Amino acid sequence: MILKLLFVGDIVGRAGRKALTDHLKGVVSHHQIDLVIANGENAAAGYGLTGPILKELFACGIDVVTSGNHIWDKKEIIPILDREHRLLRPANYPPGLPGRGTGVYETAGGIRVGVCNLEGRVFMKGLDCPFRAADLLIDELRQATSIILVDFHAEATSEKQALGYYLDGRVSAVIGTHTHVQTADEVILAGGTGFLTDVGMSGSQDAVIGNEKDAALERFLSQMPIRLEVAKNDPQLSAVVLTIDEDSGRCTQIERIQARF
Amino acid sequence: MILKLLFVGDIVGRAGRKALTDHLKGVVSHHQIDLVIANGENAAAGYGLTGPILKELFACGIDVVTSGNHIWDKKEIIPILDREHRLLRPANYPPGLPGRGTGVYETAGGIRVGVCNLEGRVFMKGLDCPFRAADLLIDELRQATSIILVDFHAEATSEKQALGYYLDGRVSAVIGTHTHVQTADEVILAGGTGFLTDVGMSGSQDAVIGNEKDAALERFLSQMPIRLEVAKNDPQLSAVVLTIDEDSGRCTQIERIQARF
Amino acid sequence: MILKLLFVGDIVGRAGRKALTDHLKGVVSHHQIDLVIANGENAAAGYGLTGPILKELFACGIDVVTSGNHIWDKKEIIPILDREHRLLRPANYPPGLPGRGTGVYETAGGIRVGVCNLEGRVFMKGLDCPFRAADLLIDELRQATSIILVDFHAEATSEKQALGYYLDGRVSAVIGTHTHVQTADEVILAGGTGFLTDVGMSGSQDAVIGNEKDAALERFLSQMPIRLEVAKNDPQLSAVVLTIDEDSGRCTQIERIQARF
Amino acid sequence: MILKLLFVGDIVGRAGRKALTDHLKGVVSHHQIDLVIANGENAAAGYGLTGPILKELFACGIDVVTSGNHIWDKKEIIPILDREHRLLRPANYPPGLPGRGTGVYETAGGIRVGVCNLEGRVFMKGLDCPFRAADLLIDELRQATSIILVDFHAEATSEKQALGYYLDGRVSAVIGTHTHVQTADEVILAGGTGFLTDVGMSGSQDAVIGNEKDAALERFLSQMPIRLEVAKNDPQLSAVVLTIDEDSGRCTQIERIQARF
Ligand SMILES: [Fe+2]
Ligand SMILES: [Fe+2]
Ligand SMILES: [Fe+2]
Ligand SMILES: [Fe+2]
Ligand SMILES: [Fe+2]
Ligand SMILES: [Fe+2]
Ligand SMILES: [Fe+2]
Ligand SMILES: [Fe+2]
Questions:
Q1: A260 and chain D: CB distance < 8 Å anywhere?
Q2: What percent of chain B clears pLDDT 70, i.e. is strictly above it?
Q3: Contact (CB<8Å) C122/B126
Q4: Quick check: A93 and C127 CB within 8 A?
Q5: Residue D261 pLDDT class (50, 70, 90 cuts)
Q6: What mean pLDDT comes out for the span D45-68?
Q7: Is C34 flagged in the annotation as binding?
Q8: Which residues between 91 and 120 in chain D have a beta carbon less than 8 angstroms from any beta carbon of chain B?
Q9: How many A/C residue pairs have CB atoms within 8 Å?
Q10: Do residue D128 and residue A127 have CB atoms under 8 angstroms apart?
């Protein structure tokens, strides 16, 4: 039997949410998706998540929300991180922080899927080693299931490809997020792990990685700390469909999606 | 009349050169390419360029070689930067350095094409502003021709997309290099500029951005300054074909290529 | 004849302002200071400057206020940057921005003193080259006076020492700011330029570079974007007294001050 | 009874070694030092350490050698890291690497002194958290002795001051290294821990943090990867003398030294 996962990249602001609410159900039905995972770190106007927006994401058909460096931007999400097990933050923050970085979820058909959220360190924060964190967490998840998706939220292509090879054969897929631009290097690695350096963001495509062009340009031109505003036009859903063999957990197909409507 | 440019991403070591020598002529003939531009910053075992390797690149059919941060790695290339006008380095290094960052080249059919090489600053070096440098250099190139390709060698997706919008309508194309992973966001912007965040590298695909997996992984795992070695297997040519209207300089088609052989 | 300049490091919040209002006049009188220059980039609760706070700084005896990366934090200072010539921001931001980076000021005795404010690039923003900016600006200032003080607001010790040597013999002093910790390497270089890597901040010393310890520690421990709060206790004035030969502009004495009260 | 420790900052090249061989014995005798600890990460021409140079350091009177990010530069030191217990490298590298980050050493009078070497993360590598590493390691060392010195090899003043407060009352001293410039903020914190943001380097003072001025300047001016060369002139020993109460482990006096000869 096969299982189909949809993984949606960073949802950026209202435009990103609109792409989801309007069209996710269609994509899910067309691809016969069993479980939807989406990175929501930019869903609240580009900066983090709130309780109502998280509900909106679940309501439109997302089963599990992952995140990244922006998860801490809105303070009100912090208590929710502890009580909502369908919301993940990168696992390799220091121990003792609110929330969790892995979870096991069940499809409607009763199949268990492990999800692991990690954050990179190159050009980013001083977190615990994502490679060693993965060793531990993947071992744990494999007690429950051999179907495991890793959202690796990272900047550098080298760090992302390295983690893909590192986990090849141990997880079903390693999918990158954070750069907001979809890469064209989808591949099934030798050990059966589906890999994509970045799935890209879901939000306005007529924009600088989801933000209004004028402010973004002004920021580069002036080097002043101009506040970025989320762009509204031309929403696009960026995602990847992973076909996985239920027994082995191996990825048998990986297909990128960039859907404009 | 239309013109077709082929722009090839960072050529990484022997594997990258082999992909070129074996297959560039076929690609050029199949796509009826008028001029071939390629980024050669990693052609010499991953680090810079030498005279003989530069000759090898020209011999296999490349007309213009651009580069990036690695151009200074092999000292022997420095005198060549001054005398070989078909070799460019990023224009926004300080004034007075060897070499040049722009050139105007002629196709076999006598059409002039301007090429401009710039380097980004986000997560990179303290260079002059690539946006303001572009203003000046594009104005100069437009005296000679309205067909202009910009190789923007940069890390951050935001900086690259920002330059694309900034130059939209002033150049035929802004194509990113440096991350070694091809992105899937090719687009013709409103003003007629073809844009792609990164064209990806030409070299071994069974590798961490062109380098051997074992050393790359060891580097991430140990945080020791392990020397990276260029990988050899599974060479791939990554490029983009730009169709350009000769009169207006506008891009009318942009097509990504990832060719394995 | 000699001239004595007092240069006060980054004034951090209310504690920093209090150290100044209470004690600057005493220091000025004790050292027979002719002109007081102070870096005010953190005067408004750690983040930038406001109009009233700028007035407060002038009122307590500061003649010229320099700044740094934090100057843009409070939007209300931006129009003031244009009209208040006693307020400087780093000169090597892009052209066209509000404000200026140099000024010539007169002591009560009618001696002209040039001040130049620059910002470093290592571990900081993508600004114009501070070395080349200095070449130009120092040449201009030297039309008016040979007594010139440079506030180099930078992180890396290497970049700061390099600028000191670079300007040796062309300015009276190069004094670093930004790290908030006074260094003990004051020296008069071979060409007569007084140099100090960092003058240190004026503010609470029972603190992490002027900020409350608990929040600062929590930030390092959690890697969450905890908001820093300016600390209140144990204010200290950090400054440097420069004795300068009026005719030659050479520094003849450099003395560090760390005054607690 | 009291104990006196001398901690010497980064020894840079031949000039640094010469300052030590010529004058360390005099300093030790003058201050009645019981144990000498020195950071040797730049002792071999600015880049790492070799076996013979390590011997030279021990021969001139150093009892324990700490290090930092440059420790891996010379491959030949790697086996020595495992067998020479008087040589430390930062403890918060990943587990399994050669060498160790702590040790307990005995003075001639039979008093045990713990030394702990850590490396910062701000503007540096992706290492394990130095704060949490310290928690663990200090607990261990305190089984053996209450006299503990921490060499915190870090760039950012904020991270260094934060670790000082974090360990206050648990160790005898936290002394910073790596910036190569001595700071003037020596203090005994409330809990009895001696603290100094950076002890400064031992090497040529007529130099850019120990390196020849011309190459260092050329590097900043050109942004090319110019090789730095260790400077030779005007050697200086930079160190700190810590007076410690044997029973409590509290620091009772902290005195900076910058000795030219
Ligand atoms: Fe994001
Ligand atoms: Fe992110
Ligand atoms: Fe590059
Ligand atoms: Fe490259
Ligand atoms: Fe400051
Ligand atoms: Fe600053
Ligand atoms: Fe060092
Ligand atoms: Fe270091």
A1: no
A2: 100
A3: yes
A4: no
A5: confident
A6: 98
A7: no
A8: 93-94, 97
A9: 28
A10: no
**Residue B70 three-state SS:** helix
pLDDT digits (tens, 9 = 90+) for C65-107: 999 999 999 999 999 999 999 999 999 999 999 999 999 999 9
**Position A253 confidence tier, pLDDT thresholds 50, 70, 90:** very high
- Are the C-beta atoms of C152 and C118 separated by less than 8 Å? yes
Confidence of residue D14 (pLDDT cuts 50, 70, 90): very high
Nearest to C154 by CA among B261, B176, D144, D181: D181
Give the per-residue pLDDT at C261: 72
Percent of the residues in chain C that have a pLDDT greater than 90, as a whole number: 99
Q: 3-class DSSP state for residue D12?
A: coil
Quote the percentage of chain A above a pLDDT of 70. 100
Residue A95 pLDDT class (50, 70, 90 cuts): very high
Domain that holds residue C219: 2-260
Q: Is residue A117 within 8 Å of A127, Cβ to Cβ?
A: no
Per-residue three-class SS string for chain C: CEEEEEEECCECHHHHHHHHHHHHHHHHHHHCCCEEEEECCCCCCCCCCCHHHHHHHHHCCCCEEECCHHHHCCCCHHHHHHHCCCECCCCCCCCCCCCCCEEEEECCCCCEEEEEEEECCCCCCCCCCHHHHHHHHHHHHHHHCCCEEEEEECCCHHHHHHHHHHHECCECEEEEECCCCCECCCEECCCCCEEECCCCCEEECCCECCECHHHHHHHHHHCCCCCCCECCCCEEEEEEEEEEECCCCCEEEEEEEEEEC
Q: Among C198, C91, C199, C105, which residue's Cα sits nearest to residue C144?
A: C105
Mean per-residue pLDDT for B6-24?
96
The interface predicted TM-score (ipTM) is 0.97
Q: Which of the ligands is closest to the CA of residue B43?
A: 4
- pLDDT of D66 > 90? The answer is yes
Helix (H, G, I), strand (E, B) or coil at A189: coil
CB contact under 8 Å between C93 and A225, yes or no, is no
User: What's B212's domain CATH number?
Assistant: 3.60.21.10
Rounded to the nearest whole angstrom, what is the distance from the C-alpha of residue A260 to the centroid of ligand 8?
A: 50
Ligand nearest to C-alpha C69: 6
Distance from CA of C139 to the nearest CA of A (A): 25
The whole-number pLDDT of residue A116 equals 99
CA distance C83 to C143: 23
Q: How far apart are CA C232 and CA C211, in angstroms?
A: 8
Say how many domains are in chain B. Answer: 1
Measure A48 CA to nearest chain D CA, in Å: 24
B39 has a chain A CB within 8 A of its CB: no
Helix (H, G, I), strand (E, B) or coil at D225: coil
Do the chains contact at A185 and B182, CB–CB below 8 Å?
Answer: yes
Whether C125 and chain A come into contact, CB under 8 Å, resolves to: yes
Angle at CA B252, nearest 5°, toward B248 and B255? 140
Measure the CA–CA gap between C244 and B233, rounded to whole angstroms. 66
∠ CA A10-A13-A18, nearest 5°, is 95
| Maximum C-alpha span of chain A | 56
Q: What does DSSP say about strands D251-260 and C2-8: parallel, antiparallel, or unpaired? A: unpaired
Ligand 2 centroid to Cα of residue A40, in Å, is 10
CA distance C97 to chain A (A): 7
Residue type, A117: N
Q: What is the mean pLDDT of residues A128-141?
A: 98
Residue B211 and residue B231 in contact, taking contact as beta carbons nearer than 8 Å: yes
Which among C132, C181, C216 has CB closest to D197? C181
The one catalytic residue among D23, D30, D31, D70 = D70
Chain D residues with CB inside 8 Å of A127's CB? 126
Q: Is D30 annotated as a binding residue?
A: no
Q: Which residue of D has its CA nearest to C189?
A: D206
Q: What is the pTM of this model?
A: 0.98
Are A127 and D126 inside 8 Å of each other by CB?
A: yes
* Residue D112: both structure tokens together: 């045990």
| D70 given a catalytic annotation | yes
